[in-house]
Design brief:
By secondary structure, the protein is of the alpha/beta class. The protein has twelve helices and eight strands.
Amino acid sequence: MKNRKIAFFTGCFTNYYYPEAGRALVAVFKKNGLDVVVPDQVCCGLPMRAKKNERGTRKNCDYNVSKFSRLLKEGCPIITTCPSCSLFLKRYYPELGNQAAKDMAANTYHFSEYLLKLHRLGELKTEFKTLPLNLFYKTPCHLRNAGIGHVTVELLKIIPGISMAGISNVCCGMGGAYGFEKRNRKMALEIGSKMFEDIKANPADRIVTDCGGCKLQIEYGTGTQVIHPVMLLHEAYGY
């Protein structure tokens, strides 16, 4: 690819709760010769849209479009580590009705989607160290609903030594902010119980998911730490 710069849409979870994933993404992209810029930004707007706060949603969306528009004009793609952010940017932002928002949506990629694209072009650095790990991967609902398949699993399998103990496509029950509400907690755990059982039935060295909400729900339901897949790429590159 001619463009050697990406714009990182950090998302609230990475920005406030899991900065390690953000630092890992920067290192992984720099390893592949890509400069990473982090424009001023606010929440993508999805949580407010879920609560029918259309005015707040529009305000955030317009702000983000204004901050990323210059980079988009330079041909700079937008990369996220959050499936919910990437889906919302792709699906909702075109509804804003202006070309800048449509361009932002058209040029947004989940991190694994973009790195896999580089790999298919022969441009991904694959001098990975071997990671003899058996993984259990939870597919985020928003990544699946984006219609881009198991891009993260496909990317992780490039790393020598990686195998899959299991892949779960069932909902964890968190449903964004839904599972955080006291009145929904019992239902959220009931929905997630099938996934908890799958994890226990398929012992793995590490549990992996791209979604911050899934991470919190799985850790609560199983008592086992969950990591973002970009952390494995970071490790495989020897950082």
